[in-house]
Amino acid sequence: MTTATDLNTPYYQIDVPALRHNLSIVQRLCELSGAKALLALKCFATWGVFDFMSPYLHGTTSSSLNEVRLGKETFGNGHAKETHAYSVAYSQAEIDEVLQYADKIIFNSFNQLNAFKAKAQAQNVPVGLRLNPQTSNSSFLIADPARPFSRLGEHDISKVSEVLGDITGVMIHNNCENNSFAAFSASLNDIETKFGEIFHQLEWVSLGGGIHFIAPDYPLEQLAARLKAFSEKYGVQVYLEPGEACIHGAAKLVTTVLDTLHNGKPLAVVDSSIEAHMLDLLIYRETAPVVEINGEACQLTAVAADSDVEQQNTIICGKSCLAGDIFGEYQLAQPLKTGDRVAFGNAAGYTMVKKNWFNGVAMPAIVICNDDGVLQVQKTFGYEDFKASLS
Ligand SMILES: Cc1ncc(COP(=O)(O)O)c(C=O)c1O
Q1: How many structural domains does the chain have?
Q2: Do residues 331 and 300 lie in contact, with contact meaning Cβ atoms separated by under 8 Å?
Q3: Which atom of ligand 1 is nearest to the CA of 171?
Q4: 222 C-alpha to center of ligand 1: Å?
């Protein structure tokens, strides 16, 4: 049996029992509310675990031709699942292929709707439109769909009313890791005030992703009741598009310390890189929790960067040339040494889908830890993959 120490680092390890834990919460929410849940592939598209995931979910939603195809081809293990297509903009060259895979297609703008609705209708693919309520629950401007001058969806109710004959539903995504039911509910009130009159004429409303209902203290029953009441009031099928909620906490990135230095504080360089393997840490200026050192589980959140209080804090750094390639600064019981293995948590969402070959840093393998704790190497990447990604 493969043990962790047999594996070359770096690798992402996906934990199937942790996936099941999250997904059983998603499933319960759907059972209580009548909503349907579609995995947002933009967050997590590691299709090697889709056979574990698909029994809990109704299908997938996508942001591109490649994702809609992946959802259609790999999600469901032979069982009928829904495949939603959405993109900020489709091209003329790809729309016919998108429609081959789509069970519903959601256009981002009136222009896209007008350009492609006839093709969709000719193929009996129900059509939707993305709406932008111009308010959101997002603490990051870069991830705020309602930011000023946002291109993400149409907002003018009178113009939306004119295209109601063309669409059967709408999609609204305006939450980002929102763990407050009160904030979600207030936002839904706001959406109802702005768009409620048209919802009565639709068959379905997708409320997007970004609702952090898997948090241990989240009032799941209240959320379910709110969604059910919404669905009954307007006579619509509600869809949710959870990404992060499906996979939160279900993977770690396992690395090895390659070198240590001292420059005012102890520094450890690991065989990975946030820019290449956990890009959102860089984009959102966040740090990764350390969840394991040399196979021993721990829960170390990073301390404030550059805090000069603790001269002994260790800064764990990536091996790319980017000066700010830093996983975080930690209070460790023991100093790290070359050869130590360090695993970072929260490594499932928006990581594997964003990994890249910056500096040619070795691409982490993908390893699956199944229900019996057996480790299976799902995929390794090498020089040929690096070379093939360029030309
Ligand atoms: C349209 C849409 N649906 C769903 C999601 C998934 O969001 P999350 O992973 O936060 O649940 C996103 C994320 O950006 C999105 O843009």
Answers
A1: 2
A2: yes
A3: 1
A4: 21
Pairing assessment for the beta strands 36-40 and 59-61 based on DSSP bridges: parallel
Rounded Cα gap, residues 255 and 318, in angstroms: 10
Contacts of 139 (CB under 8 A, 6+ apart): 176, 177
Strand partners, 262: 266
d(CA 62, CA 167): 19
The pair phi, psi for residue 117, each rounded to 5°, is -60, -35
Residues 6+ apart with CB under 8 A from 23: 53, 56, 57, 246
Structure tokens at 316: 């764990």
Task: Say if residue 313 is in the same domain as residue 379.
Answer: yes
Confidence of residue 304 (pLDDT cuts 50, 70, 90): confident
In angstroms, the CA 254 to CA 4 distance is 9
Q: What is the pLDDT of residues 116-174, one digit of tens each?
A: 999 999 999 999 999 999 999 998 999 999 999 999 999 999 999 999 999 999 999 99
Q: Tell me which residue range forms the domain holding 124.
A: 17-247
Separation of alpha carbons 199 and 204, rounded Å: 8
Looking at the fold, whether 64 and 179 belong to one and the same domain comes out as yes
Residue pair 26/245 in contact (Cβ under 8 Å)? The answer is: yes
CA of 384 to the centre of ligand 1 (A): 32
